[in-house]
Design goal:
- The protein has 192 residues and is mainly alpha-helical.
- Helices cover 71% and strands 0% of the residues.
- Helix 1 (7-22) packs across helix 5 (79-92), helix 3 crosses helix 5 (79-92) and helix 5 (79-92) runs parallel beside helix 7.
């Protein structure tokens, strides 16, 4: 039996987390994409590098460094990074509900999101709120959750949520948008 720090054991752990992250996916195209792009340890690592590069080139450099910081000297991706890579893959395949389901699975499995996970999910849900009205509610919930945990969302996430709220029903939601703004300001955050 391999010890828990052996390369075989770390690879097995990563693949076990990946299996948990993708087990509830019912979309045939998404399953195929998972199998082709992240279905084995080496492919997952290669895809994770692509995700890191994309995040770093999209104003999330510090968050990407935090997300992909290895768990140990064995250079194993942390569980949150594996789930976030799967969320990213869903988003890139325009499967927003699937991305949210992976996030829920992550929470159910006791893996806490970090700022990068939150930012990706918040922006995606807010920017796709016209396809599902519940996305606005979730984007707002996760934004406020992020603030409550002492994380600082970028102003772009705030604006995405604010615009999504305003788009829902401009007259009725104006009060909700103002309330969201005041909660954001109460936390000492300022728009830049």
């Amino acid at each position: 039996m391999a010890d828990s720090t052996s390369p075989q054991a770390t690879c097995q752990h990563v693949m076990k987390v990946l299996k948990k992250a993708t087990e509830y996916c019912e979309d045939k195209d998404l399953k195929e994409m998972f199998d082709m792009n992240i279905g084995d340890y080496d492919s997952l690592n290669k895809y994770a590098i692509k995700v890191f590069d994309a995040m770093a080139n999209d104003t999330l450099a510090e968050e990407a460094k935090e997300l992909f910081k290895p768990r140990s000297e064995s250079a194993v991706l942390p569980d949150v990074a594996i789930y976030t890579v799967v969320i990213w893959a869903c988003i890139c395949s325009s499967k927003i509900k699937a991305a949210h389901n992976v996030y829920q699975c992550m929470i159910d499995n006791g893996v806490a999101p970090n700022s990068c996970t939150y930012i990706i999910l918040i922006n995606t849900l807010a920017n796709n709120s016209s396809s599902d009205v519940n996305f606005v509610w979730y984007a707002k919930k996760y934004f406020l959750e992020m603030l409550a945990k002492g994380m600082t969302p970028p102003s772009s996430s705030y604006m995405a949520v604010f615009k999504a709220i305003a788009r829902q029903e401009p007259v009725v939601k104006a009060k909700e948008a103002r309330s969201f703004l005041s909660r954001y300001k109460q936390r000492g955050s300022a728009l830049s």
